[in-house]
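Its record is quoted verbatim for completeness.
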Amino acid sequence: MARLPSRSWLPAMLALSLLPGLAAAATTGHAVDVDPRIGTGGDGHTFPGATVPFGMIQLSPDTAMPDFKHAYKWAAGYQYGDSSLLGFSHTHFSGSGHSDLGDVLVMPIAGDVKLDPGDAAQPGSGYRSRFNHNTEVVQAGYYAVTLSDYGVRAELTAGRRIGWHRYTFPAGKPAHLLLDLRPSIYDYPGKVLWSHLRVHDDGTVTGCRTTRGWAPGRELCFAMRFSQPLASRTLYSRETDVPYKGFKGPGYQPEDHDALEGRALVGVFDFGALKQPLGVKVAISPVSEANAIANLDAEGKGWDFDARRAEARADWDKALASIEIDAPKQDRTSFYTSLYHALLSPTLSMDVNGQFRGPDGAVHEAVDKNGKFEFHSTWSLWDVYRAQQPLVVLLMPERSTDFIRSLIAARETSPFGILPVWAYQGLETWCMIGYHAVPVIADAYIKGVRGFDAEAGLKAMVASATYAPYGGLGDYMKLGYVPIDKEPEGASKTLEYAYDDWSLAQMAKAMGKQDIAATFDKRAGNWRNAYDPKTGFMRARKTDGTFREPFDPDAAGYGTDYTEGNAWQYSWYVPQDVAALVKAMGGDQAFVTKLDSVFEAKVDPARFAHVEDITGLIGWYAHGNEPSHHLAYLYDYAGAPWQTQKRLKQIMDSQYAARPDGLAGNDDLGQMSAWYIFTALGFYPVTPASDEYAIGRPFVKRATLHLGNGKTFTVSAAPLDDKHPYVGSVTLNGKPLDRVFLRHGEIVAGGELHFTMQAEPNRSWGSQPDARPTSMSSAERR
């Protein structure tokens, strides 16, 4: 089991109230319960800086941008345990297991200027500065810190496309702002292919850079303005005589030009001794400098930092008001911070004129047959299809409409003609497995989301599911499985493709496309080709049909049959037909016994040292990684929902805490957090693209969901405490509910789900076959 340290950081939080000017700007609304520090330590990989729901800007401090061999811990640019800051950049992933971004890094400097970041272990060796957590204020939409080496108070807030800065410099010292276009999270030599920097006559600074990071050939442009006139400015190329297209870098000499090009550009902007704070506003664009200026003109008017901070706070209060809970303060912090993290991605990736950059690298307009829409990217689809996107469907279906239109637009501008796999700023990385944009679209459609072109959506889904060059799909379509002698991680790919196929079939059925539904219903049964009844595990077969030998169910990682997991974790991945899996494993008792063995095994976490993402261990169960996320709910399908209730409490107690290292693994763009939200409410979407949620047990006394259709749905529980961990009975709108699943339509119709809790398990409630969530093989009986 992952052990989480003590709350040694709380005194620093309490000290904030004693520092002048550091108190929260407001105490109303749910943003007051958000602590963006959660996940910034350990392997959570979240960032503490300023952003708005699904915004393009993530303006946040960076403590390190290490080379790609050491970048994992700093995937969001910031680690809570660090003691110095490199500066503040405008783009970040939240909770990803991979790193990139960190664009447009700025650093305010008082006094002498150093042009390179220096060594964190040697204070004063560069422009980075030490800081103390006692001076940080970390809130939804706002971040502040004092840079102790300069005596500069830095404050950040954000709009949808604009990052707002306010820097208060010590009296009498010359004020400078350094702009460094070299650093990038996941940095390595040659990361910046080319960049340019320009100072316009009106003092506006613009530029672009092209990088070859996780998404090769990514271009990002910016426009920057200052509230005070420039006293002087100097542009530098820090290249050391490296030729590029006939250009030979001038080394470390400053260039007295209005514009400069190269691969290692730095700008220093001087303001003299200031008597008032310096305001800086920055817009970004994935398309061009001209578009960045247009974004700045449209959304960056004026210099009222406090008003922009209040707007960001109001945006979060509005978004978080979708759920009201009654819970103790610490639980409120965990809940609303989880909801905050679940509403960060996908991010806006379109300029005010409607232009976006597609996976083909070209510029496109965000318009389809239904009119204009807002294009979003940053899709960790292997993660977010499970719970984060279903949460958006439940709470904000209008957002889901835009997201699906974005997925379809990405497919239509892709040179491969398929939906995104893991994309950001419109570009594809091909990271992870499956074609999980398919269940995202299907889940939304099945649950009533409209406003997108369903025909185009289904066409995109079929195209993705039949693109033979992708991940062994050609062999999968011929053999019914992905052969391990031709494609790595064949067992995982077979299982995930089969589920995606089932979700596609559900949408086809709902649209009356019976021929398509029949094809993919058949493919949905391909999970059986991975199941080995002799060992009781899912395994990879070779082209000749035999299972690969030798077999070790404990083995995990690349080169094995599985993706970021082992047989103990992946053998349960048949969300579309858990009833058939129960039968294959020998029936209810055998299934429960084997599932118990997952949670109760004695496992040394060191065995997964070579697989960074397998964390949060409870036996073999790894809550820090997504393949395990549905396991605790599977007892519902075998007539033992009281076991689900037991395991959920075990997970909630050990894998989440309201402190910087309070996430047991990568938040993965909100998936870990969305799991928490659903579980706290008492139900979970084990099978997205079904209209059902498996019932667990609630972890808040009362929660009211304010739904997109204007109705409310309330979940209540009594008595709710550690002495009453089990469900005794459930009522829906005052009537007994004897089944362990809830339908989406029952939620959006409004009403109340009430749990009566008790000290001992109720082994009869929800245990009968007709009380269990629906599976593919049991659907005809319903």
Summary: The chain is about 25% helix and 25% strand. The longest strand covers residues 216-226.
